[in-house]
Amino acid sequence: MNCIIRNAQMSDYDSVVRILNQGQALHINWRPDIYKPNDALLPKAVFEEIVKGDTFYIAENEGNVIGILELIFRHIESPAQVTRDIVFIDTMAVDEPYRGMGVGHLFFEKVKEIKAEKNLDGIELQVNAKNKAAYEMYCNYGFTEKSINMELL
User: In CATH, which superfamily holds the domain spanning 3-141?
Assistant: First the structure.
């Protein structure tokens, strides 16, 4: 596999939506009480604004979009916390046929590169409690738990 990580372009829109829908299907399966089918997970106008920034990346293999990565840069400052600047992985998804082939690790390397370039303090993300495969991948890459969200139904 000859995969590259690059900035998203408008021409990627259909592939991005397809991969987002794969992730949404997993969430619906895990928690149908919370998640629902939605053909408009990412309206085209919203994607158009996103690609103008430098926060949405594509994993491409032989001209095909096989993964997506969206980042959010956060400045954390409060009386209770040490002031920090972090990059938050808001979305990371890999097309089903390419999972387990190292695309996630390529994304992590890209995020580490961005962290170093921008002199950020850390990289953070959230993972669905049911997404054991992603959780294990994050742990194997060196992520540790910072907090745990809980609910009472």
Answer: Gcn5-related N-acetyltransferase (GNAT) (3.40.630.30)
CA–CA distance, 12 with 149 (Å, rounded to integer): 33
Q: What is the mean pLDDT of each run of 10 residues along the chain (153 residues)?
A: 96 97 94 90 94 96 97 97 97 96 96 98 96 94 94 92
CA 149 centroid distance within chain: 18
Nearest Cα to Cα of residue 5 among 62, 48, 81, 57: 57
74 burial via Cβ count (<10 Å: 0-12, 13-18, 19+): middle
Q: Is the pTM of this model over 0.90?
A: yes
Q: Helices 103-117 and 132-141 sit at what angle, rounded to 10 degrees?
A: 50
